[in-house]
Amino acid sequence: MARKWYDDDELDILINRNRDKVLDAVETYLDNATDFCRCRDCRLDLAAITLNRAPVRHFVSEYHMKYYGEEDEAPLDKRMSRLVNEAAAIVARRPHHD
Ligand SMILES: [Zn+2]
To answer: Rounded to the nearest 5°, which phi and psi values hold at 23?
Structure first.
């Protein structure tokens, strides 16, 4: 078998920046939504759908963000918020809970 090109601990600093953005946006949504189900299935479906719809933004550690040209976060936060709202509508229409 071919040798892997990376050591396992090296991948720890390879970060999808938007994963944290999505999880933060889901938290904000759940803090404010009054009519969304809080069961495990619905919360995780909400996160999964939002993660699948958000663009992936990989960085090698947070220190390199400037290098990759991601300084202004406000538009991104707004976009994540919109994605979570769209995902919440999908989950509410077809919830997987019993
Ligand atoms: Zn539910």
So the answer is: -65, -35
Whole-number Å distance, alpha carbon 36 to ligand 1 midpoint, is 8
Q: In what helix (H) or strand (E) does residue 16 lie, and over which residues does it extend? A: strand 14-16
Can you spell out the DSSP letters for 56-88? P-EEESGGGTTTTT----HHHHHHHHHHHHHHH
Distance 45 CA to ligand 1 centre (A): 9
Rounded to the nearest 10°, the torsion over CA 39, 78, 85, 83 is: -90
> In which element (H, E) is residue 2 found?
none
Report pLDDT digits (tens) over 18-64: 999 999 999 999 999 999 999 999 999 999 999 999 999 888 875 66
- 40 C-alpha to ligand 1 centroid (Å): 7
| Cα(94) to centroid(ligand 1), Å | 10
